[in-house]
Design brief:
The termini are far apart. The relative contact order is 0.20. The chain has 124 residues and is α+β, with helices and mostly antiparallel strands. The protein is globular, with a radius of gyration of 14 Å. Strand 4 and strand 5 form a beta hairpin. 27% of the residues lie in helices and 44% in strands.
């Protein structure tokens, strides 16, 4: 994990790599907004948990390597590489950048900048 990270960030990323949608949502405000790549924004913890659970079901696993973290007063930006293991066992590594807008100690907006298209592209 990168330097200057808030202590809880490693745990948050761990819930994602453990495919723990419920655990992931404990980091969010009740009215959070979750925006993943080009998908439409998802509003509220129950809807976010359903969307995240559906995504986790479409892959075997993920592994995030956070390269840099930029904490600010009410936000955190980070970037890195995520390796997805597809359902067929093949792997692909993609760059990502996230912005987390904070409200107190919870994430009110979780925005993931990633081109997820290669994850679902037909394999040659």
């Amino acid at each position: 994990m990168a330097t200057h990270e808030p202590k809880w960030l490693r745990s948050l990323i761990g819930t994602i790599d453990a495919a723990d949608a419920t655990g992931f949502c404990t980091y969010l405000t009740e009215d959070a907004v979750f925006h993943f790549g080009n998908a439409p924004p998802v509003l509220g913890r129950p809807a976010i948990e359903r969307a995240v659970r559906q995504f986790f079901a479409s892959i075997q696993r993920s592994h995030h390597q956070v390269v840099r973290v930029w904490p600010a007063v009410d936000a955190i930006a980070l970037d890195g590489l995520v390796t997805y293991t597809r359902l067929d066992g093949s792997k692909i590594t993609l760059p990502f950048a996230d912005t987390l807008v904070m409200r107190g100690d919870r994430v009110a907006e979780y925005i993931i900048y990633i081109d997820i298209t290669p994850l679902y592209a037909p394999q040659r």
